[in-house]
Amino acid sequence: MSDPVTTVPHSIADYYQGIEQENRLRGYRSACGFVTATWGLVCPQCGRRDLAEVDLSGRGKVVGFTIQNVPSDRFVNDAPYAYVVVELDEGGRVTGWMPSARAEGSVSIGDRVRRVATGRPGVAFERELGPPTSG
Amino acid sequence: MRTHPWATEASVRETWVVGAATNRFGKMPETAREAASRVALEAIDASGLSPSDIDYTFVANCFGIAEHQAHLGPLINTALGIPDVPSCGVESACSSSSAGLHEAFVHVAGGFSDAVLVVGAEKLSHLDTLSATSYFAIGADYPFETRNGATFPGLYATLASAHKKRFGTTSEATGAVAVKNHWNAARNPHAHFQKELGLATYLASPVIASPFRLFDCCPFSDGASALVIAARETVRSTPNEPLIVRASARSGSIADMHDRPSLTGLPASRLAADKAFRQAKIERSQVDFLEVHDCFTIAELFALEDMGFFPAGDAAAAELDGSTAHDGKLPVNPSGGLKAKGHPVSATGAAQVVEVFEQFNHRAGGRQVPRVETALTHNVGATGGSCSVHIFGHR
Hints:
The structure holds two protein chains of two kinds.
Chain A: H1 12-21, E1 25-29, E2 35-36, E3 52-56, E4 59-68, E5 81-88, E6 93-98, E7 112-116, E8 124-127
Antiparallel strand pairs in A: 1-2, 1-3, 4-5, 4-7, 5-6, 7-8
Chain B: E1 15-22, H1 32-47, E2 56-60, H2 72-79, E3 87-89, H3 96-109, E4 115-122, H4 129-137, H5 152-167, H6 171-185, H7 199-204, E5 207-209, E6 212-213, E7 223-231, E8 243-252, H8 267-280, E9 289-291, H9 297-306, H10 315-320, H11 337-341, H12 348-360, E10 374-381, E11 386-393
Parallel strand pairs in B: 2-3, 2-4, 9-10
Antiparallel strand pairs in B: 1-7, 1-8, 4-7, 5-6, 8-11, 10-11
């Protein structure tokens, strides 16, 4: 028998509103500890339905990145910029772009980053002050 | 989820690929509808059947919207003179036509159809690079990847950065993939790029999405490919050596790559390959050659490692020492792969099988591999949310 639904996760529209109007990054934490901002109804890792809504910190370290010189249409005036996968301090990973990381060497795996409000669609990050840490 | 290799093994009919055809990948003057119909008829002719023998048609055409055209199946069947034959569109991003092959296999092996046509076609060359890049990007997760700045080269480049960091994968290794696949494509009359590539040219090409240079990336290609699948018991004679479908396996994985435990491979490839080898009841060492999903050079390394042909991080050495060349210990992508043969998204999975068909019939010319008893095709949808693995054997 399936678990009862104890929490109805936010909608994708809520996620957009959080980023663009409320300066917050909405996500969920599953009973197994899986954390993500990606919308869902059932945890893809453990199959449980009791997903707790959380505000994600937006702080963590880069675990994968690229400097994009050829963007898609939404970012046509922004290239080059970095696209990053960030492992959050509280667990889980999210993606985003780094408007200030425009050249090779401007971001590395292991760098500490934090989410910034840009007034633009999409999740944006910037490097935290201080020397980069090794990954 | 069912784990038995075949759902009801006793009732699975032996299923063959009896016909296969593709056109020249690159820039097509005609529409996907026209190209799909032409290669479909060529595949039917190659099978020794006639259009009226076809019981069902599966069609893959992800980006039909770019030509203002959906519901391609009835148009193709009408063009083939079989308007009453049922058809169905299959969409699984870059693995669409291998998904169509799997559905055809299920129909034939399960006894619901005796002969099924699978056709995949794509036309994007009338779009500019920005538009084509944007079309490709919709195969990713729009709110959580694309809207955050991802493109397809960017997503695979991000995976590549993690692989390079963990395993020390060098540009020379990914360059070896590009050089080898261009060499093969130069000997494939159906390939988009029919020109060899030197490592120096690869290394000097512009960076698209670091660490990817231009020559790490497959091209935007138009193209069409088709297969005819039939039950052995219904085939009286075939003008070509058929492929026996030893395994037809698919898998999924968590759709967004960043939500998976690791960024250094595609878990769906491992799952689909494990399932396929259980179905075929053979070992990796028995595979003579592979056609794998090398949309970017790093993806060929992922495929070889994820499917268990090499330990994680070790495929680069095999690329560098020539093991994966057409005459090496384990030839990989003798067609030139997506990287150099081209990647007309919905035609790609079927085209991989066309290459196996040509190799098994010893028509591959300068790229002919030495052993053609067992071959494997591997076709990925997006960043691995979908994956198909097929294993083919000789009579």
